[in-house]
Every structure is written in C-alpha cells, then in structure tokens.
Specification:
37% of the residues lie in helices and 22% in strands. The chain is of the alpha+beta class and 479 residues long.
C-alpha cells in the first residue's frame, strides 16, 4: 500500500477566490474539504505533524485509500491542515515526531485516537499528550464547526474502553446505561451521521474487545476454551443481525465483524480454518467489501493468495475500493521483485540480484517484536541446518532504524544469529522501498522468492509452520 505524502506550507493555506466564484460554489468547496488547526502543547519549534486521513477503518487500520499530509508550524505556533476529501465522512489521526526513546523503535507516535470527520468540518484542536507504553494518552479540546461531534466521541469512547464487566455485553451488544445517558445528552447537539456512527462504535466496542481476548492469540487455545465455544454457539443460534445501513462507517462495527469471522474460523469446520472463507460466508454488502480490503491490506497470513485475490476481486463492487484493491497485486505469485538495495552488518551495500541463482526466504523483523522472536526461535533457527549446502538461502531483513540497535539484536541471537545473511534497511525502517512497495507493515513477514527473484509465496501460513515450510522448500528445490 502506498501513501500519498504532501507537505503543507503555512502561506499556501491562504485561499483567494476570484470575484466570479459564486457563494454557492464557495460553500461547495468548503464541503469538499476539512480544515484542522492544531495546537500541540508538546511541540518543539521545528517539529512537524502528520495527518493520516481516509474514509474507512477497521479498528485502527485502514480498509480503503488513505492519504498523509505533513504540516509545519505557522507564525502562531499552530499546524494548519486544509485537505480535500472525496467522500462525505471518515476518520483521521495525527502523528508527531518521536524523540529518542529506549522503549519505542519507530520515529513517529500517534497523538490522537481516530477522529470521525465530516466534509466541511472546521475544527481547532488543542492536544496535550504524554507518551506512555500503554496506548495513546492525550487530552484534546475541540472548538469550531461540529466540535461537539469530536468532544462527544472523545468522552464516550474513553468511557467505553475503561468499562469493566464486559462479558455480559457479548450477549446484549448494547452500551452500558452510563454511556446511554451521555448519548441522550449529546444527541440533539450532534450531526445525525456523527451520532449514528458514534452510537454504533459504542455498541460494538466493548463486545469487540472481549472477542479479541478470546480469539486473537492462539486459535488452538480458543478452540479448547469452553467460554469461547459457548459464545460461538450463542452467536450462531441467534437470528442474523441486521445492521443499519450506515454501520459500515463504524470502525468498531467492522472490527467486531472481523473478530466474529475469526471466531467462526475456529469452530465452523466447513471453513477449513480459513479466515478469508469466513469473511466471505458471513458478511454482505459494504461490510464484506471493507473486511476483504482490510484482510488484503493488513497483517494476515494467506493460504492461497491467487485464489483469494480472484474471489475478492469479484466480490468488491465499489469503484473506489476496486481501484485501490488493485494495489494489492504485489502479493500474487509470479511477479518479479525489484532489485532492492540493502546494507549488511559491515556497511556494505547488498542487492537482491546477488541471490538470483538461489531460492530466497526473506524474514522481515524488528527489535522488540515478540512474534518475530518467536518465529525465529520455533521455525527459522530449526530449519536452516536442513538446507545447508543447497540452493536455499535465508535472508534476515531488519526493519530497525538504528544500526546500533540492529547490531545488538544480531549479537543477542533472539531474532537472528551472527552467521545468518543479515541485512537492514539502511535506517529507513518501514519507509524503505522493500517495505513500502510490498505492504510490509509489521513483523514478522515471510516472503519466498524462487530463482530470479520471482515471487513464489507471500506471507502464507505454511511459511510460519516448521514442517510445512520444510516441505515447501523441498518441493521447490525438486522443480
């Protein structure tokens, strides 16, 4: 997935309309954009802010096209974004440059939760943020056109996230009474759509969080858990829920539906443990299309990318989503990878083409990634010896930004070892072309290239299971 980066210079935000432009045309232009004026209390004079904005999100992750804009401070110390919007509503969040940290490895940090916008919004936001390991810790003050929509969302989403005793609400899918009372207070002050989406977000946030705890970590453990089985049987037995037509705009509703799909994958034998099949079978309309977009654009292991891609291409009808879906073709077998340049531990430049006469398994990881360490410990460290002296090589690609951090991790032996083919992304991390152009958004990612840099498998489930990976490599060697 490629992001569109645009720098906004303060003086470029001054707009002069020709005399011939009518009042109606001016109003139409306002509705085709949103304006945000940000007072970030922790900003230093030369800091920039990044705005990420799109129409559809599943939880915190986009399910459609997303654009990014960068702003610098104006003479008043404010960051001003006036950005065009194609749709009527969606979500945005803001990111600041991260100072040096021993805890966090990326160079940006989120300073707001996702905010729901509507075309024509003109909002001033004061942000007081203290970075902590446990999520975003910001207090925002909103002023301007439709500010109450933002204030209500901040108050009630935080209240829902800290609500205890969530299990009964799996059955009710209804917000607690304390939240309902505040919704009643805010309803006459909010726009109709902002209220509807917030109400839906609140309705599904609590139950979605509970489902995540049941099915996220280990599907085999979920299958053996009687509570999880009970919830599955309850959800399966009740009448199919008919969600309102605007529900697909709710990030928490879509997240809930994705987690329901994960739950069905565990217990419905007809789905063969396949999340893609689960999404297709239990969803309809825009909800199905957006979950498929999220599945292909997010961190999910595929079983048969070519087959799944073809089916999804048929299911996705929305023209904007269909056009964006085409950008995921980098996952399809048969594509030739670019001759990317990387750096080895001695500072020497390494090109992928140097391994064109080999079968290459690329492991993408970064320091601090527990799943990356687990993949190395349980799979990669055990299989490398089986293919020593063959045409198979294992290429360990670190997404760390700091050379010293990467070198320490090599010596530590938690993610790789000092005898491996270790390279890193020359300090660019996830911004390096090998990551940006191939949808590498986390870790671990595993990519198997046949000789000549021809993509054979992209992050498929078999690459993460010891015996299946061994069989895959053996079969590829025999061809």
């Amino acid at each position: 997935m490629k992001s569109i980066i645009k720098t906004i210079i303060p003086f470029a935000l001054v707009i002069a309309y020709p005399a011939a432009v009518s009042a109606r045309e001016k109003q139409a232009r306002k509705k085709d954009s949103i304006t945000l004026t940000i007072n970030f209390l922790q900003a230093a004079p030369k800091d920039t802010l990044t705005l990420r904005i799109g129409e559809y999100f599943v939880g915190l992750e986009p399910a459609g096209p997303v654009k990014k804009y960068i702003a610098v401070q104006n003479t008043k110390g404010r960051y001003v974004f006036r950005v065009p919007v194609a749709g009527s509503a969606g979500y945005f969040d803001l990111y600041a440059i991260r100072k040096k940290s021993k805890v966090f490895k990326t160079n940006q940090r989120a300073i707001t939760e996702l905010q729901f916008w509507e075309a024509g919004d003109k909002i001033s936001i004061e942000i007081d943020n203290i970075e902590k390991a446990a999520g975003i810790n910001s207090l925002c003050k909103f002023e301007g056109r439709n500010a109450v929509n933002y204030q209500a969302r901040q108050e009630l989403i935080k209240l829902a996230n800290h609500f205890e005793g969530i299990e009964p609400y799996v059955r009710k899918t209804s917000p607690p009474d304390t939240i309902k009372q505040r919704l009643v207070y805010y309803k006459p002050q909010m726009s109709v759509l902002a209220y509807q989406v917030l109400e839906t977000d609140l309705k599904y946030s609590i139950v979605s969080n509970y489902l995540e705890a049941l099915v996220f970590v280990d599907s085999s453990k979920a299958a053996a858990d009687p509570r999880t089985k009970e919830i599955y049987e309850f959800l399966k037995s009740r009448p199919q829920e008919v969600a309102p037509g605007y529900a697909y705009r709710s990030q928490n509703y879509l997240l809930y539906k994705m987690r329901i799909a994960k739950l069905y994958r565990v217990f419905d034998k007809s789905l063969n443990g396949n999340l893609f099949n689960s999404i297709i079978s239990i969803n309809k309309g825009m909800t199905k299309q957006l979950l498929l977009m999220h599945y292909f654009g997010g961190y999910y292991k595929h079983i048969d990318p070519q087959k799944e891609y073809s089916k999804a291409e048929f299911e996705i009808k929305d023209p904007v989503l269909k056009n964006y879906f085409n950008s995921f073709s980098y996952k399809l077998p048969g594509l030739k990878w670019v001759d990317y340049q990387l750096t080895d531990s001695n500072g020497k430049k390494i090109s992928l083409s140097q391994f064109d006469d080999k079968i290459v398994l690329i492991d993408f990881w970064f320091t601090g990634c527990g799943y990356c360490a687990n993949y190395y410990k349980k799979v990669l460290s055990k299989i490398k010896g089986d293919f020593k002296g063959t045409d198979v090589i294992f290429l360990s690609v670190s997404l760390d930004r700091k050379f010293e951090v990467w070198k320490e991790s090599i010596a530590g032996g938690e993610y790789t070892d000092d005898k491996a083919n270790n390279v890193y992304t020359s300090g660019q991390g996830f911004e390096h072309p090998i990551a940006k152009e191939n949808g590498i958004i986390g870790g671990p990612y595993a990519v198997l290239l046949n000789k000549g840099r021809i993509l054979y498998q992209y992050n498929t489930e078999n690459l993460f299971k010891l015996n299946q990976l061994k069989n895959t490599l053996t079969a590829l060697l025999s061809k």
